[in-house]
Amino acid sequence: MIILQCIVPAVNNFIKMRSLRTMTLAGNEKKVPAPQLLEMAKALSSDLRLRILEVLGDKPMSVTELAKLLGFAQPTVSINVAILEEAGLIETAQRFGRGKQCSRTCDSIVLELPRSYGDISEEWKTVEMPVGMYNEFRVKSPCGLIGQNGLIGQVDEPRSFYLPERSGAMLIWFSEDGYVEYRFPNVLPSEADYKAIAVSAELCSEFIGYKEDWPSDITLSINGREIGTYTSTGDFGENKGAYTPSWWYGGTQHGQLTEWRVGADGSLLNGQPCSAMKINDLGLEREETIVVRFEVKAGARNRGGLNLFGACFGNEQQAIRLTFIR
């Protein structure tokens, strides 16, 4: 048995682990059985999530307060709070006069290591799709694709979206309305029971150059079923993206990490209810592939285009992630 102490110093965040033959834990502790180790490891594998746990050690806070204190966008904090809540490390509750507050559930964690083969079953699996590996699209100029070394094809030329080099794209964009569609493999066995499925990506609106206050309604659908619409507040170019190449300047720099999650009771967008679509409505057991579409509809109130970021652009080191949870 290993004791994982949730201690995150302000200067150098780390997890301190130590083995003890005899153990006595003071304070509030959480016991993690072997089948939940992978979920717990995922929850603790992010510096931002450790910082959230750190600041919640002092007092409960709202997502808005956390975002302001930590210097991250509110949707990004909401997603990470949802992951910590899923792992049982924090809980959210309505506090009179203060809105919805987040609080830490424990001060220490006891991990039970597996004793024999089969004690751990895979609780989640993620497939990451490069942004240029779309199967279908409909885009309008201005539009374009950027790879690690520069422009792919010609800027503002929709025909460039057919080029085979598109597979190496790290940033794609189009204006007004349109869509890009991806086909993910269903990597779980046909008899697997799904608890939830989640799609996450860094994205934002599209304006020539950039415009911080340019909204766009971006709808995600899975297997032709609409999950929910995220309204991006702008096309962000004032601050350099953490992973944006140094040679890229004067245009879009980063987006906002956004997650749609479909579970047994409905769908969530960045941790908040967005539709009644349920996991059983997606027909996952019947589909050979899972079709994911990012779309700005022609009839949308805010037809502000779309920027979609890969692992080497923006603030998040990821492309489009499809996560299976069972």
Give me the strand/helix succession: EEEHHHHEEEEEEEEEEEEEEEEEE
What proportion of the residues form beta strands (DSSP E)? 25-35%
Mean of residue pLDDT values: 86
Shape: globular
Largest sheet: 10 strands, antiparallel
Q: Which secondary-structure class do the elements indicate?
A: mainly beta
User: What fold name stands as the CATH topology of the largest domain?
Assistant: Jelly Rolls
CATH class designation of the largest domain: Mainly Beta
Radius of gyration: 21 Å
Total helical segments: 4
User: From the 3D coordinates, which CATH architecture of the largest domain would you assign?
Assistant: Sandwich
The end-to-end span amounts to 25 Å
Q: How helical, in percent, are the residues?
A: 10-25%
Low-confidence spans: pLDDT under 50, at least 5 residues? 1-26
In total, the number of strands is 21
Total separate domains = 2
CATH level-4 homologous superfamily of the largest domain: Galactose-binding domain-like
Protein name: ArsR family transcriptional regulator
Keywords: DNA-binding, Transcription, Transcription regulation
Pfam families: HTH_20 (PF12840)
GO molecular function, one term: DNA-binding transcription factor activity
Write a brief caption for the model.
The chain is mainly beta. It has helices at 37-43, 47-56, 63-70, 74-86, and strands at residues 2-5, 16-19, 29-32, 90-95, 99-104, 108-111, 124-129, 136-138, 143-147, 150-151, 171-174, 178-185, 196-204, 216-222, 225-232, 256-263, 267-269, 272-275, 289-296, 306-309, 320-325.
